[in-house]
Amino acid sequence: MAGLRARPAVLLLASTIYFVLQGSDDKSAAFSNVAEFRDEKKLTGRRDALAASMLAGFSSSPTFAEESKPPPRGWQMKLPEGWEIYKQFGVPGGDEMRTKELLLAGDSKGTEVKVLRIPLQTTPQDPDGTAALTLIEYFQIPFPRVTRKTVVDSLSKAFARQKATYAFELEGDGEDRMKDKQKYLLYEFDLTRCEGRQVFGTNGKICQRSDTGEILDTKKYHHLTINTVTPEPTQTAREAFSEVLWIVDISAPADNWGNLTKQVATMTKTFAVGTVEQLNAGRNTSSS
């Protein structure tokens, strides 16, 4: 990727799950990116463990009637004009329990967008991890007990605790949006990165090369993330429903963020997760 350096992202749900995103060969940008539904080989490896307790008291999970198995979900989003797709994959099968990066795209000025799919598997009989259940409750129950601030604080720690994070500051309290009865949470923050070693001295913290000790400049980026959780059918057990956390991370050098209002609006307005029928209806509405 000429002139564009992919930055790693981390999701933390009390315990740490790392996923490093790197770009691949450049491709032409598409008008919209609709996830493909495809069958994948069953995975035999054990999935990453979900988090331990994040909030005491939130231990009940949504339940489904046996006949109401949710249909597969895909996603779509319109990229701004002139953007390039660096990496894109179809939505994996229901047995895939690992975090998957589905899209990495950007422009020539360092602006990026990443789409991530993160399974949060539970079963009605044996819920696994109250952190995941907290997210499920917030996004899928009409009047959740968990607050938006709690969810933003939890999700944003994924970025604040990255090894390269030099400084982190949330902006505002976030915003909920409803689209086709699906709840989306948007929040923003500034993140300053140190691509070397962070050292605390008498004059405060500095960023320096680990080999020579040379002082390095830090880089400040502004982020806007879109988050939602959807139920997904899984093929591993008849009674199991895999809940999936979807994250869209839009980022750019902070000094250029003010010039990206139109581009950011294009992505935030058109990103959606849903069934094939819901996504088709959404595209028809956007184009009318």
Task: Describe what this molecule looks like in 3D.
The structure is a single chain. By secondary structure, this protein is α+β, with helices and mostly antiparallel strands. The protein has helices spanning 130-140, 148-160, 261-270, 276-287, and strands at 9-13, 15-19, 27-28, 74-76, 84-88, 100-106, 112-122, 165-179, 182-193, 197-201, 204-208, 219-233, 241-253, 272-274. The chain is globular, with a radius of gyration of 19 Å. The model is unreliable at 1-67 (pLDDT under 50). Residues 1-22 form the signal peptide. It comes from Durusdinium trenchii. This is PsbP C-terminal domain-containing protein.
Can you tag this structure with a few keywords?
single chain, 288 residues, alpha+beta, two-stranded antiparallel sheet, 16% helix, disordered N terminus, signal, PsbP C-terminal domain-containing protein
Distance between the termini: 35 Å
Helix count from the secondary structure assignment: 4
Unreliably modeled segments:
1-67
Strand content: 35-45%
Count of strand segments:
14
Tell me the layout of helices and strands:
Blueprint: E1 9-13, E2 15-19, E3 27-28, E4 74-76, E5 84-88, E6 100-106, E7 112-122, H1 130-140, H2 148-160, E8 165-179, E9 182-193, E10 197-201, E11 204-208, E12 219-233, E13 241-253, H3 261-270, E14 272-274, H4 276-287
Antiparallel strand pairs: 1-2, 3-5, 4-14, 5-6, 6-7, 7-13, 8-9, 9-12, 10-11, 12-13
Short structural summary:
This protein has 288 residues and is α+β, with helices and mostly antiparallel strands. It has helices at residues 130-140, 148-160, 261-270, 276-287; strands at residues 9-13, 15-19, 27-28, 74-76, 84-88, 100-106, 112-122, 165-179, 182-193, 197-201, 204-208, 219-233, 241-253, 272-274.
